[in-house]
Amino acid sequence: MFFLSTLEESIRLEPKDLDKPRADAISLVIEELFVDKIVQDLGLVVTLYDIVSIASGFVHHSDGGPRFQVVFRVVVFRPFAGEVIVGKIKRVSRAGLHVSLGFFDDVIIPEHYLQEESMFDEAEQLWFWKYVGEDGQENKLYMELDEDIRFKSKAVRFQAIPTPEELRKAREKDPLIGTAEKPLALMEVIGEVYSEGLGPVAWWMDDDEENEQMPS
């Protein structure tokens, strides 16, 4: 889920920061530029890990702030295919489930990746799994908002930052796109819950407890 990645960037320091230790000042700029940001085709940068090297700085004649070519390592979030993760159900629609990990909110579980015999309850606006128990009784197991859900990562999908023209055309179809209510998702994790043991964690609590109590 998390891994180290090495990046290289030209980092500019403000003249007012030149009295600070160079590595500290550069670290602050890197954190501002990269931490909590999506790097295209890489993932979500969680934190700066370390600075590998800082080349000699240079100053353009029209700019008082020196630039340094910096090689550094960052901790990146991007789950691999098949990784099992636990999040919380934050939004539900006919299209599926929207899950949050706390630090990352763009996990999508499409309706075709829910359990077989999953149905959408129009009155409750929730999905449920129509489950037949060993006694032959039919049960409706609902997927509730804010409930912990265990899912398996299928893929990670990146979207480039749209141009102003692309954003204008998208807003003609949906005026909320790119607003605080519906921010752009530059990275989405696609998950599934149709495999055994996946879905709301509460569904499998008894099985998990029995496994923990089994003698080794």
TrEMBL record:
Keyword check for Translocase: no
Swiss-Prot/TrEMBL keywords: DNA-directed RNA polymerase, Nucleus, Transcription
Domain RNA polymerase Rpb7-like N-terminal: 10-64
Gene Ontology CC: RNA polymerase III complex
Cellular localisation: Nucleus
Annotated transmembrane regions: none
GO terms, biological process: transcription initiation at RNA polymerase III promoter
Similarity annotation: Belongs to the eukaryotic RPB7/RPC8 RNA polymerase subunit family.
Name of protein: DNA-directed RNA polymerase III subunit RPC8
